[in-house]
Amino acid sequence: MNTFAAARVRIVLTALVGVVLSLGAAGCAQPEPEAEEPAVETVEYDPAVWAESHPEIFQTWMATSEERPPGLSKYKRGYDGGVMFDKLSEWPFMALLFNGFGFGIDYQEPRGHYYMMIDQSHVDPSRVRSGGACLTCKSPYAEQLYREDKDALFAATYEEAVAMLPEAHRSLGATCIDCHDNEALELSTRRWTMDAAIREIGLEPHTLSMSQQRLMVCAQCHCTYSVMREDDRVVDIDYPWEGSEWGAITVENIIDALMTQPERLEWTQTVTGLRMPFIRHPDIEFYAANGSTHWMAGVTCADCHMGDITLNNKTVPNHNLMSPLKRDMQVCLRCHAATPEELKAEVIAIQDANAALLIDAGYRTATVAKLIERANPYVATADEGAKARFDEAVEHYRQGFYRVIYMGAENSVGFHNPQEGRRILGDAVTEVDQADAILRELLTSWGAPPPPEVPLELERYLTNRGVYAKGFVREQYFPDPTGQAERRWPASLGALLR
Ligand code: HEC
Ligand code: HEC
Ligand code: HEC
Ligand code: HEC
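That is the input. Now the predicted structure with heme C docked in place:
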């Protein structure tokens, strides 16, 4: 088929969809930008070339490098006023839980897309130990390098992999070609990982509807994945989506995949000695799971994180993707009649409730990790019955731990799917409480009853982390909005906050 002709048909379709959408959102019809002639003929990585035909969009895309206005977002402050925020100081239980992994050393809140490669070049070296695989969702060249020689890409150290990139583009993060097909400019994904994941949920890549495509361009990186290993060699990047379907990539299915496929084990948790998989930013999964209100209403990531902007008398989608709170909720007003203040209060209320649950589940999980640490020396010499009980406790711990890190890694602090967040964190607490009860019973039977508040030694995990000797940043800490955590773990949090 003549691809150029097909491309033009697609442009017309895209324009039509745009018109229908703007009619649907009553009372807020924006002037539709004209569909432009395809400007770029071959795979074009260089955003400057795209800028020739889309100078306004290019300008907004470049603005992801700008610092964010401080004081507008309560929980997602990445780069507000030019300051970077340390996730482990915000949520100290994570430092204990992630000890033994790069994330337990250096884990920062995200900032603009401009920085995705730049931030990897400053991060603690432990965070790029997976080498070439780290380019997968950071460099637009990942797909090409994978197709040319995937073994070489995965065998490379991080520095070697960066050296495979053209010199001028070694700091280039998500660019036009990551989300657009350069013949037609229509939305398209460009990663083998996404193609495989789309098939796993029963769809075919390149046949997605426009609204699916609008979600999937973001989902190709805002999703969880495993760095797959065989004999400690990286062999691929894979999303744990098997057994799931569109709109129902559930935390339960993800945990099943993590628990049953040993290739997904990536690190050893220091406190417990357990080999572990990991869960990273499950944004599409959490947003879409179990009928969230906005998902059911057909709202996509771009609706809330892009919005439109007028530059040079042209209205274009604002490619400076950021928190809606940092834009005074303007993107919400297209669909909601409430005032920005009311909408913001609703978001913060949802996030406070979620943060309280996350903090509670987080310290309960950290306590169980410390109980496993205490139990470990006795297990080798324990009788079969006690060993089986211990294994049962570990199973409950894993179920709780995975749910906590899932909720800790999704980027909206519960907003994307409030009901689902409550459900997941409720289940996490049920699981770790069962582990807690079994471990206390075992330790008591071994003559080593633990104290009611097991010391968490948080300072130990937060201080002197990695080559930059990172420490606890007191003013970045998120207190429990209900005040419960500081009362429930007075010794452990007291020691840290003093
Ligand atoms: C190629 C991978 C990739 C794609 C595609 C992608 N993102 Fe991101 N996104 C990232 C990474 C990585 C970061 C964090 C960058 C950093 O901190 O250095 C990020 C950060 C963000 C942030 C935080 C910005 C800030 O100011 O703090 C938002 C919001 C965001 N992305 C939304 C989106 C949306 C919406 C889409 C789809 C339209 C999308 N992203 C597509 C990888 C991607
Ligand atoms: C992270 C993904 C992402 C990146 C990177 C990206 N875009 Fe987009 N772009 C989108 C999305 C999503 C939309 C659709 C917005 C909508 O449907 O409202 C879009 C829409 C567009 C449109 C259609 C405008 C219209 O009004 O219909 C153009 C043109 C465009 N982008 C050009 C660019 C250029 C040029 C670059 C690079 C400088 C770029 N995009 C980078 C995600 C991206
Ligand atoms: C209904 C609106 C809405 C939709 C749809 C939505 N988000 Fe969000 N998103 C938010 C809000 C509100 C926050 C919280 C921002 C804050 O606290 O500052 C957020 C936070 C984020 C952040 C963290 C931003 C930061 O500054 O660090 C990322 C990344 C993100 N969302 C990505 C996505 C992706 C990817 C999708 C689609 C799968 C999506 N969002 C869909 C409203 C939305
Ligand atoms: C494209 C349209 C659209 C956009 C943009 C949008 N929403 Fe919504 N929102 C809806 C629809 C539709 C519903 C469900 C019907 C209702 O409750 O009004 C909804 C429901 C809600 C609810 C109730 C949630 C629940 O679970 O019942 C809240 C809170 C909310 N939106 C906040 C926001 C905020 C904050 C933003 C901006 C960050 C936003 N929305 C952006 C369409 C949108």
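The chain has two domains: 43-67+112-334, 340-497.
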